[in-house]
């Protein structure tokens, strides 16, 4: 009797708790979302769905681990869960690439129990794919595709079991139809071996005469018809999305007369969201269609965060897609997909280095060919290497965090004992070898300097002899960086005043990659047996995240 009563009480209370929690959820789930869905360095997004889970991958260029993979349940809240290439020995070629070479636009797909990520390593082996049963990994070794040196490969599984590889390029160069033309072609692929089978078929050179740089293809079969979606115009202000369809996978593909179906190319330089293009489509479990694509944001004329990932709705009218009807623009605030609101718990801002592995957020500049860092006793121990951030094709001692906000605070506690004049450790704001800021303990002083278009400028240098320091960088809305340092967090003094932050912007450092902030140690071209110890690193974004 008692037991029965208890059970009843339990079940009614549980039911009311469930009711309360659904209503809390309903109350707190916003109606809108905020673009970008992944801010900062997140170009060339590609998306796939398994059950009610969504996965998105980005290109990553010379940074490592390569091809970040994010997970979401509502297309709006995304969590970094892995990288498709995180084992350095799987892609040793990435140790030597130039800035903005390396990993270009990927395609992420799921078929028959396996995830596939296919991409190009530019100037480091060309096209390859990796597979995984679990998107968190482990991912396989690369399987190299034989016979294509073009970029932006796509994989498409047809209903008859055949798999098609789409590549970018003009098969017969003598037939290049106009200046700056590029094209898309298709060929069957054997996914066991990576061999392309049969003949290559050219599908298009672009939606119309004069279409430039047709690339980034994805093929889908929707209601019995084959759709080809491409990026056009180059990944700058003329970027666009165009669509084609065909009754046969190998064409002929008819360009939609309303192409390009999405572009901000005619909005002029003042557009806040610009460079929209390079789309991939997904249908939700509730029947809606959405597209991810890349775009950039214009902060008072400066593109500080490079190419980011955006989301927009797609509807079908007369058998063709309409992007974000009726405005046909990517909006910063837009109506949310009809999916259960599923935010992830906020991550702590401070990384204490207590685990035995670096947090997924951290990246290296190129593939580390040797183990120059270690996590031990709650510290990140970083060996000084002669390589600096101003050298090309090297892997300096840098541990970097994507800059995901226009406004942020980054800080660290670093110690480097008995420093010689060539030995330095501290913070960097980094884009490429010619455009970056360094704020370091060096020899007997603190030094703040930056490279802008390859020219080194020293902002400030102040005597400092203690073994360790807290270093702090504040990036502000007015495109300035403010630096401070001291022996403890409550005793910081500023140095250098307001420093123009635009060296890492697209305006100055234009490239495919994006900005980072992080930790750095170097012995400036000379051998050293020193190790710098980072007690913690903090990255705190100050941009408002989700829509109200
Ligand atoms: C990407 C290609 C592109 O692979 O930029 O300009 C490349 N075009 O689509 C790098 O994101």
The number of distinct helices, counting runs of at least 4 residues, comes to 2
CATH superfamily of the largest domain: Glycosyl hydrolase domain, family 43
Largest sheet, in brief, is: 8 strands, antiparallel
Number of domains: 2
How is the largest sheet built, in terms of strand order? 4-27-30-39-32-33-34-35
* CA(first)-CA(last) distance: 49 Å
Bound molecules: (Z)-L-Arabinonhydroximo-1,4-lactone
Mean pLDDT across the residues is: 94
Bin the helical content. Answer: under 10%
Portion in strands: over 45%
The counted number of beta strands is 40
CATH class of the largest domain: Mainly Beta
CATH topology of the largest domain: Tachylectin-2, Chain A
* Secondary structural class: mainly beta
Give the name of the CATH architecture of the largest domain: 5 Propeller
CA-based shape: globular
Report Rg. Answer: 25 Å
Which regions contain 5 or more consecutive residues with pLDDT less than 50?
10-26
